[in-house]
Amino acid sequence: MADGRQLTIIKVFRKYSHSLGPDALQLLEEILERHDIADNEVEFSIETIAREYNKQDDAAMKVSLDILRRVYDALQDQGNPGEAEELLDPDSHLYFVDAFEMPSWHWSQERGTFEKSSNALTVAGSADSRIAAVRNRLHIIKQSILRNEHFSPSSLPSRDREYLVTLKSTKQLLGRAGERFLLLGMLTHNKEGKLCVEDSDGSVELDLSKMDEPGEGLYTEGCFALVEGEYNDDGILEVVAMGQPPCEDRETARSIYGHIDFLGQGSTSLLEDSQFAHRIREELSDLYFFFLSDVWLDHPQTLVGLQKIFDNCIENSFIPKVIVMCGNFTSKSIMQGGGRDIQRYQENFDSLADLIASYPQITRETHFVFVPGPLDITGNSTLPRRPILSTFTSHLRSKIPKVHFTSNPCRLKFFGQEVVIFREDTMARMLRNTIGIKPNVTGEDLRRYLVQSILDQSHLTPLTTHIQPVLPDFDHALRLYPLPTAVILADKYEKYKLTYSGCHVFNPGGFVGNSFSFSTYCPAERSSEEGVLDIEQED
């Protein structure tokens, strides 16, 4: 009969969907004995080994002795004092990830993990890819819910088992009128215009008349919700409670899927992330990223404001590592404009290039990132949007050596941190398509509900495609799983910042107004601050 240590070892590896043979179990017990690991430290030690094993590209579900030894040897090498570490080079760990260059990982129900798509991705997509995009959203949310403490039973006997919540499928409702069920599905309207919840097995009509109010968050058509209610004889679920799915923090998701390179820039382990985080705090505490939104280049005050920012940076010897400028880069749409409007659009970018180039130190050291907005001229109007057409940015490319024209959304990878940048009028679109919300909410509540809903849904646009068109083959580029370190929801809505489930979210607000408003992000602190320059003296 297995002893307590063996049960702990088996439990930890099972968490990562791995099974242990007798030889592997024996090796792990020998490692614990060799290092005199106390009983209360066994789980932590085995967790470290299991995480590193899970990261290996050739790791099989049945634990391999050879791979296990390799992992152990690597951990031993990490623990040995070696030569003095070189100072961190931020540029060698800084990546700008375009949505159209991200690898596509889809959820495999058969394997219970992510699989890399082998199909060529196209802008047109297909009927199958449209269905797969929605199913991926459902399965990713569901697999994290089933790991949640309120849904997942402990491997040890516990009184808490009687309080566990069990998810049901719509097909399990048939012939069971009068019983109460908890469903997870997408909120949609059927052909008759009735509100329904739809999962992979079917759909059921909802009656919200008996529900006092929904849980916190914005419930939109196209979002996934946990719906509890009683199934009646008419085939309708009489809802008594509705809530957002629980959010899984970044560390938990990374501990399971840390071996998967979601961004295509190389994966790191949690141990490496922790080591980098410590060194960033020690060595790069004065490194900052600037974020600006609605940089209207056709507004007379915009270049004045940018000049003020650059002057302050030089005067204070405070050169940002990255300056992200989000659209719109025009205050009015020129999609249907004449030749003169389009020419002026290009000339405004040329003027910006000349302004930046007049600051040699900033030009030399700072990365400039341009993210298109809804009114900017790109190759497509659906999400994700392609970068601003190169026709308009040739002068910027020739003048600025570290310039990046990215998709919308795009991502910034810095050591173990992932920063998502998204320019869309998200608040207005979500509110226009809200099915349910708590009554008497304040502006602060709305900001919190928006952030909570986006992160709980693990997606930047939890809406149906007829409300927000999305290229189905690239829907993964809008996914927020694992949870990023930070999300910039650049929006014409008022600026804000808050942290939810360990993810820092902020809106820098419009750049031009009564003041030049922008935000600074400090990777060492994983937090943002508002940057404001007064313009009262400007004409």
Automatic annotation (TrEMBL):
Provide one Gene Ontology biological process annotation: error-prone translesion synthesis
Top-rank lineage group of the source organism: Eukaryota
Q: Name one GO molecular function term.
A: DNA binding
Q: Where are the transmembrane segments?
A: none
DNA polymerase alpha/delta/epsilon subunit B domain: from which residue to which, for each copy?
289-496
Q: Report whether Electron transport shows up as a keyword of the record.
A: no
InterPro entries in the record: DNA_pol_a/d/e_bsu, POLE2
**GO terms for cellular component:** epsilon DNA polymerase complex
Pfam families in UniProt: DNA_pol_E_B
Instruction: Provide this UniProt record's keywords sorted from A to Z.
Output: DNA replication, DNA-binding, Nucleus
- Compartment(s) of residence: Nucleus
What is the recorded function of this protein according to its Swiss-Prot or TrEMBL entry?
Participates in DNA repair and in chromosomal DNA replication.
UniProt lists the family membership as follows: Belongs to the DNA polymerase epsilon subunit B family.
Q: What is this protein called?
A: DNA polymerase epsilon subunit
